[in-house]
Design goal:
By secondary structure, this protein is mainly beta. It is built from 3 helices and 29 strands. Strand 12 and strand 13 form a beta hairpin.
């Protein structure tokens, strides 16, 4: 049941499913971070110390099952995306106080991104008056005037621009645009006729953009491609085949030299195109200087999910799903030594993130 909620096809999310003056240039991000995961029973955010021992637990009262977590770039806020009967719902958790808030309670809400002032950007009311909102840390919401079809956003590390992606419908491809932080000036930087651009992300140094290209078709879980381009849209190129449809974003290393991604190990299995549980995957890393890929994990017949870098670049955290018994385990890859180890937990868990100190 957990996998069914956690692996909603990207195509369905796109169909189902930030205003503001100029942003100040942010100070450099901390190179220290702590790992946080979500335990399902009872619903709890669990924080680990630097030795991966449990340091703190924050009980949560959630109205619907959790499917994803999104940490603010700096500060102590964590956006929780839930799968509710009336559509997705985004709640805001304050890890300092343990408080939980609903920034937009009137209708469904879909997470888009954070900016560097901890403002949250949402797409709301997908089946009605669809629009984009910017929500400040104190809960004040205002409309953000980008296309209502926008399903992806990301702010440049210097806070001076953002990118957003939208599609005009199935079979019409997708478009990647850039905008000023207020959204009042926009320009197109890339378009695809046969692909849906998903999870477009700036590199930490702001010089490049990576994304997963999803074939523009009705197939829910196809093999896609990992792409990279210059931040202005030039020099777009394919790096490697990658899983697509499950919602796994490319993960930039903190030094912008490598990208971790989920690789599909059974590309010729037609069942894996249609059934989320049929995916067999591992985590790979591509080195941008050489173009070479390296396999980080070597699981057999497992579903290995979204890699997350620690702020110092030494670790990757990720989930491993065993389809035989429907268990989900937290694993850590220590990249300097190559060691891959599990973090034992007696309770079902998901959605690891690193919170910067």
């Amino acid at each position: 049941m957990l996998r069914g909620l956690y692996n909603i096809p990207c195509v369905l999310l796109l169909m189902f499913v930030s205003a503001c003056g100029p942003l100040p240039i942010p100070t450099p991000l901390s190179s220290e971070s702590l790992l946080v995961v979500f335990h399902f029973a009872p619903p709890t955010l669990t924080e680990f110390d630097s030795n991966f021992n449990i340091a703190r637990e924050i009980p949560l009262d959630l109205p619907c099952p959790l499917i994803a977590t999104h940490p603010a770039p700096r500060g102590h806020f964590l956006a929780l995306e839930l799968a509710c009967l009336n559509g997705p719902l985004v709640l805001l958790a304050d890890l300092t106080s343990g408080a939980l808030a609903n920034p937009f309670a009137e209708t469904d809400s879909h997470f888009l991104t954070w900016d560097f002032d901890s403002n949250l950007y949402l797409r709301v009311d997908a089946l009605g008056n669809t629009r984009l909102l910017r929500v400040t840390p104190d809960g004040i919401a205002s409309q953000f005037d980008l296309p209502a079809q926008t399903y992806n956003m990301d702010f440049a590390p210097d806070g001076q621009s953002l990118i957003y992606t939208f599609t005009r419908g199935l079979g019409l491809g997708s478009e990647l645009w850039a905008a000023t932080p207020s959204g009042n000036r926009t320009w197109q930087i890339h378009t695809e006729k046969d692909w849906i651009i998903t999870f477009a992300r700036f590199s930490p140094n702001g010089k490049q953009i990576a994304f997963i290209a999803l074939p523009d078709s009705a197939t829910p879980f196809p093999t896609g491609e990992l792409w990279v381009m210059d931040a202005n849209g030039r020099n777009a190129r394919t790096l490697a085949p990658a899983d697509s449809g499950h919602g796994y974003a490319p993960a930039w290393s903190p030094d912008s030299t490598r990208i971790a991604y989920v690789h599909r190990e059974n590309p010729d299995d037609p069942r894996a195109d249609q059934i989320a549980d049929a995916l067999v995957s591992n985590i790979y890393i591509v080195n941008l200087a050489t173009g070479q890929t390296a396999r980080v994990t070597r699981f057999a017949n497992m579903l290995v999910e979204s890699p997350r870098w620690s702020a110092d670049g030494h670790f990757l955290a990720f989930m491993v799903v065993n389809p035989l018994d429907d268990t989900i385990a937290l694993w850590i890859a220590e990249l300097d030594s190559g060691e891959v180890k599990t973090i034992a937990s007696p309770r079902p868990l998901c959605c690891p993130v690193w919170m910067r100190k």
